[in-house]
Amino acid sequence: MAREFKQFDIISTDEVNSISDHYYFCPSKSLSSSTTKHIMKEWRILKKNLPDSIFVRVYEERVDLLRAVIIGPTGTPYHDGFFFFFFFDIQVPSDYSASPPNVYYRSFGYSINPNVKAWGSVCLSLLNTWDGQKYQLWNPFQSTILQVLVSIQGLVLNAEPYYNEPGYGNLSPRPSWFKKRSLRYNEDVFIMSCKTMLSILKRPPKSFEEFVNQYFRNPASAILVACNAYINGQVEIGGPIITSTAETEITTSLTSFTFKAAAGSLYPRLVDPFIKNGSSVESIELLDTSKIMRKNIGRRRRIYQLAAVMLLVLVIFAIPFVQKAYGAGVLLYSLFGFYILLLFICVYL
């Protein structure tokens, strides 16, 4: 039986390479007794109050460093079959707690949120890396690392991350076009999160190898069932999963063609690592994404053929009238605008 992975633990840095991959590993800075006292207080707070979905490791000989893994919240595109989790490397500065901690997201090159960049930056008011009201910024007398972790989980990894973009969150009411863009953004989040998980499987962060292996082994079937439902357009990203076979007929697809193409290509890359990791996937019917892809590619080809015919008809009938009435310049602008419209329709169908 697998050993329980502790929510909070202190890692001995005598262990081989237990800390060498930490983003803030080098250089090491000397800490005052006051800063060290603050850090020990943070350790006690974390050990006592961490929620079930956040795990933290601290280091015996490098008390200024922490590593945390945050599991995506329920009801968001970051929580599919208890699947997605995200690693953050944290450094306590030498003037702590006058300054907030430094936080680096281990992105593997993939951006999952407007506030979490592909290069590892985390934009959050509490870290003083994002605009906010005074009460939202780091308070040396009240703010804690636990608050930072919970804020990332609750405020950044939310149900509609598209609205984390500057200026979008204050829109009221939100236009229907923004709602569609938000749904498409959630699809991108799912793809980027899947790619992040594959990278984590290949290179688990040190001190979390056991966590990664256990976590991927148990929910593999749920993950693939979710992928099946998304690729078949049975449910929106982050929505409740409908348990059904790949052959289930649906009248309206809830996911876009672009997403289906990307997810269909990614699906086989998820299955193989799960099996190699010891996951049992025999209980579900694996999706034949090649068939889905052929169907979708055929649909896209028909759309392009129709678009070409329509454009040709437009050119034939419009040239003499537009050129006579408005001149060649207006004709070219009209054709270009129509082409952009067709391209937009093809991409977002």
Structure description:
- The chain is of the alpha+beta class and 349 residues long.
- The protein is 45% helix and 8% strand.
- The chain has helices at residues 33-49, 145-156, 176-202, 209-217, 220-231, 257-276, 289-326, 328-348; strands spanning 8-11, 54-59, 65-71, 85-91, 102-105.
Shape: elongated
Number of helices: 8
Low-pLDDT runs? none
What composes the largest sheet?
5 strands, mixed
Rg, rounded, reads: 25 Å
SSE-based structural type: alpha+beta
**Termini gap:** 48 Å
Mean pLDDT: 80
* Strand count: 5
Regarding quaternary structure, what we see is: single chain
- Helix percentage: 40-55%
Taken in chain order, the helices and strands follow as EHEEEEHHHHHHH
Give the DSSP E fraction (strand runs of 2 or more residues): 5-15%
Major sheet strand order: 1-2-3-4-5
Question: What's the structural blueprint in terms of helices and strands?
Answer:
Layout: E1 8-11, H1 33-49, E2 54-59, E3 65-71, E4 85-91, E5 102-105, H2 145-156, H3 176-202, H4 209-217, H5 220-231, H6 257-276, H7 289-326, H8 328-348
Parallel strand pairs: 1-2
Antiparallel strand pairs: 2-3, 3-4, 4-5
Helix pairs in contact: 3-6, 5-6, 6-7, 7-8
List keywords for this structure.
single chain; alpha+beta; five-stranded mixed beta sheet; 45% helix
Short description:
With 349 residues, the protein is of the alpha+beta class. The protein has 8 helices and 5 strands, in the order βαββββααααααα.
